[in-house]
Design brief:
Radius of gyration: 18 Å
Order of helices and strands: EHEHEHEHEHEHHHE
CATH class of the largest domain: Alpha Beta
CATH superfamily of the largest domain: NAD(P)-binding Rossmann-like Domain
Structural class: alpha/beta
CATH architecture of the largest domain: 3-Layer(aba) Sandwich
Strand order of the largest sheet: 3-2-1-4-5-6-7
Distance between the termini: 35 Å
Strand content: 5-15%
Number of strands: 7
Number of domains: 2
């Protein structure tokens, strides 16, 4: 059932071929938005596109491969999106994943790679789509970030540091872009079901545990008050709120999507 009318919305979702990005794209389409998605893996992107078209009748959808770390590719993707769907008024920066490493075993090259991924996966798309966003009413940027930005973990030192920087970047962009009529917000996710967790499940030592039991034990170990991992759809609903006029007086903020894992008020 359509709860809000996004028929005049053109939304772009990076990393839109799986997980939170795919769930966000589908939710936006269900509510009537035109949606562009991108990803580096062409096969996965085409599969995601086919699935979205099958599940959402008459979807206004554009999908194209794009490496968000390549500024020229992102600029070309932005131009293609505008040509296919019209100028965007929503940008969801969603690309990137975590790196497990401590300070002792994180090399200079790993630091550089992690910082580049986390920052430029936001910087390049924002720079490319900002001219379009400025021309539209009700423009918004949403950055998918991690609870690590506020609650760092020593076994993910590089990712924690980079995520914290992105949280600061969101606040800075929100202040700078507000006079342009562009809101900027983010979400801080905890443990969300993903392909990465599925792979860890397949490699589990105790094969007697099914997915529910294994993730339940993981949630207990991590002391998640809600006792389970989050779903991509739950993160997508928070993104939908921040990306639309439902949050029209909100900018520079972050929503906690961690099942109570956050220890911060």
């Amino acid at each position: 059932m359509q709860l809000i009318d996004l028929s005049r919305t053109v939304a772009v979702v990076t990393g839109g071929s799986s997980g939170i990005g795919l769930a966000t794209a589908e939710l936006l389409l269900v509510h009537g938005a035109a949606v562009a998605i991108c990803g580096r893996n062409v096969e996965r992107l085409r599969s995601a596109e086919a699935g979205l078209r099958e599940r959402v009748a008459q979807a206004r959808l554009f999908a194209a491969p794009c490496n968000v770390l390549d500024a020229a590719e992102v600029q070309a993707f932005a131009a293609d999106c505008e040509r296919e769907l019209g100028p965007a008024n929503v940008l969801v920066n969603n690309a990137g994943q975590g790196r497990v490493s401590t300070f002792a075993d994180t090399t200079d090259a790993a630091w550089t790679e992690e910082l580049q991924l986390k920052f430029f996966s936001v910087i390049h798309p924002t720079r490319a789509f900002l001219p379009q966003l400025r021309r539209r009413e009700e423009a918004a940027i949403v950055c998918v970030n991690s609870l690590l930005a506020a609650q760092p973990e020593p076994h993910m030192v590089a990712t924690s540091a980079a995520r914290s920087g992105v949280k600061n970047l969101v606040r800075s962009m929100a202040t700078e872009f507000a006079p342009m009529g562009v809101r900027v917000n983010g979400i801080l996710i905890g443990l969300i079901e993903s392909g990465q967790w599925r792979r860890r499940f397949e490699a589990r030592d105790d094969k007697s545990l099914d997915w529910a039991a294994w993730t339940g034990a993981l949630a207990a170990k991590k002391e998640i008050p809600l006792g389970r991992l989050g779903l991509p759809e739950e993160a997508a609903r928070a993104i939908l709120f921040l990306a639309t006029p439902l949050s029209s007086y909100t900018t520079g903020s972050h929503l906690d999507i961690s099942g109570g894992l956050s220890r911060h008020a």
